[in-house]
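tokens incoming
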């Protein structure tokens, strides 16, 4: 009886911990993308993305459908034209995350700080919504939208 209770306890514990682990695993590429962005390492950011990604963001042309490299190149062109330097993204506490089999949906408040022509600027309270897929190489970002507060 004692062994049975221990087994039941372990199974219950694993049932409780599994979703948190899946959520942490799904968040890993999101954090990887941000770390790559913040450290000016586009290869690290791109490695967090699937081969095909759909992105909606707040600078023209506002929508990218292809690899994350398309967005990264457009971002750098926009930043250069707008005089944006020292850009940093800060993730807040995840507002919502759902993992269903090999798909994940994440909503996270996000701050974007930067300098525009040397003047400190920022965008606080934006919402970054992402979709991820888990394939043979792990979780990868497949879509995102960036929304202003």
């Amino acid at each position: 009886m004692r062994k049975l209770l221990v087994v039941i306890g372990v199974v219950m514990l694993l049932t409780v911990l599994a979703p948190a682990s899946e959520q942490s695993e799904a968040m890993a590429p999101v954090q990887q993308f941000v770390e790559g962005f913040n450290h000016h390492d586009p290869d690290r950011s791109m490695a967090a993305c699937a081969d095909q990604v759909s992105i909606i963001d707040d600078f023209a042309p506002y929508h990218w459908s292809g690899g994350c490299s398309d967005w990264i190149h457009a971002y750098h062109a926009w930043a250069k034209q707008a005089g944006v330097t020292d850009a940093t993204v800060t993730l807040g506490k995840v507002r919502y995350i759902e993992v269903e089999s090999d798909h994940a949906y994440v909503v996270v408040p996000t701050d974007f700080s930067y300098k525009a022509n040397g003047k400190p600027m920022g965008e606080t309270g934006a919402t970054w919504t992402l979709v991820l897929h888990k394939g043979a190489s792990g979780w990868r970002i497949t879509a995102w939208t960036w929304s202003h507060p």
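note: Residues 32 and 110 are 15 Å apart (CA to CA).
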